[in-house]
Design goal:
With about 110 residues, the chain is mainly alpha-helical. The protein has four helices and no strands. It has one domain. It is elongated, with a radius of gyration of 19 Å. Keywords: Membrane, Transmembrane, Transmembrane helix. InterPro entries: Lipid_A_biosynth_N, UCP028440_lipidA_biosyn.
């Protein structure tokens, strides 16, 4: 048991301390931003008592996804690059649709 804890301690130190650099920091910031989109969506839905996807969800998706893409490119991870790269199109398209809807709505109220 003590040997297993020692190996775990060594692995945690090597993984989270030894290799820590600016890229790891960027990865954590990006992951935090990407996670915040779910928090924003959940809180908005709880307040409305129905499923809601606010603009902030798509904004966090775009910025978090873009930062995660940069991180994935630097790490040369093809699966992560493809996943984040494709997602960016969806986030941009949703923000585009929201902007167009708002523009139409503003024009209708005049």
């Amino acid at each position: 048991m003590i040997e297993a804890l020692s190996h775990l301690s060594t692995w945690l130190h090597d993984t989270f301390v030894v290799q820590f650099d600016g890229w790891i920091l960027l990865g954590f910031v990006a992951q935090f931003m990407f996670t915040m989109r779910f928090v924003v969506q959940w809180l908005a839905s709880e307040r409305a008592k129905r499923s809601v996807v606010p603009v902030a969800f798509w904004s966090f998706s775009l910025f978090g996804g873009a930062l995660l893409l940069v991180y994935a490119i630097q790490r040369q991870d093809p699966v992560f690059i493809a996943g984040q790269g494709m997602g960016l199109f969806i986030y941009i398209r949703n923000l585009w649709l929201i902007a167009a809807e708002r523009k139409t709505s503003m024009a209708d109220t005049r």
